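task queued by scheduler; priority normal; single chain, no ligands, no partner chains; default sampling; output format set to structure tokens
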Amino acid sequence: MLEDLIAERKRKLKKLEDNGMPPYPAKVNRTHQIADVLARFDQMADKQEAITVAGRVTACRDQGKLIFIDIRDESGKIQGILKDEKLSTFSLLHEVLDVGDFVELGGAAILTQRGERSIEASSMRIIAKSIRPLPDKWHGLADIEERLRRRYVDLIMNPETQELFRKKSRFWQAARDFMLSEGFIEVETPVLEAIPGGADAEPFRTHHNALDTDFYLRISMELHLKRLIVGGYEKIFEIGRVFRNEGIDREHLQDYSFMEFYWAYADYEMAMTLIHRLFQEIISKTLGTLKHVWQGQEIDWGGSWHRIDYYQIFKEKTGLDLSQATEDDLRDFAKTKGIETEKHPGRGRLIDVIFKKMVRPSLIQPGFLVLPPVDIEPLAKRWPNDPNRVERFQVVACGSELGKGFSELNDPVDQRSRFEEQMELRRRGDPEAQMMDDDYVEALEYGMPPTAGWGHSERLFSVLVDKPIRETTFFPLMRSRE
């Protein structure tokens, strides 16, 4: 029983204390990471260099007067050899040592008869006693729900999980380095907002005690960042968390990392050129290649990407001409395809849900989806060739939308009108429609130069590693066990 195992480990902890060996000391005398020892092993062995490593015991093979242990730190794993005649604390360690304990081991590098690179211990102490046993190494945490709930155990048992999150770190660092190299400056904007905006999503609400006021957690960074463009900055970006109170599936989380940039005196065509280079840089730095496998298909991000006209692909997949289709036409069509329409008031919402169900799954190789209807993008500038369309583009691949950018709407009169249309959708029952933001419109009235903007989330990373997005998050929100 687990309770019995825990009780036995607590007895061993008490044994350590009774013998004057603190089971949780503050100071560690490590001289090398394990990877450093392995890299210089022959040289260290020749010189009999003193080595002290520290890490978790992941295996223990007891042969009486001889104990072999595997020690792992973040950099790697090495074998430790404990001999009764060379270690004054051998008897005590023999009694109290468990797999899962953190230890500090000092000694010399030796090569065993079997050719195993090892450290023969001249000193060893437990520096953090493990009270709870690790799962069986062969079975581990087979249940994905338990792996996500107890991610710390998943990280201990599965080095590949640690590597996944190292890749994710490289993913965001590559984005940050690229933007800085292009002359953008990194900024921070509020997470708490009086009026959420910049995206079509239902927000979370919270209460600020000192101000006795309700605020929303931001669903986007957009409207505050564009206020900074009004204020005179020309190239800005932010990487941070956003929060959307929407459903959970392979592509959606409620809080996740997001990057947005805004670029004054640029349009959506210039932004597309920049994003093509940004994505190739991120993917190359994250994966070491521009190709990867997603759902059994090879995805190639190299070379140029094809452009996909929103109206053309929509008509090709559905038979509907968006230059003529009314809200009623779209609703009737959706019903014939079994698409729920009650939660999607307005022409723009219907276009979007039909697109996601019938068009998007066919978009596998990377491309730019361009010039959608104005109905689905209230913050983008109208296309001069057709004012019913907007200068927006999205990167699409792997049956998903992986970010969007556009020529930003800087006409305050048009912007107010579109916010009013969004508020009408809210009155019709759409909780994701955007709210009127009078302060933002006032900012535009002071004047914002022509500007291009862009945003993408960690969904891109989840696609690159072909995993559901919550599996690429350290600690995703989950229902309680109760």
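post-processing summary
- The chain has a mean pLDDT of 94.
- The first strand starts at residue 51 and ends at 62.
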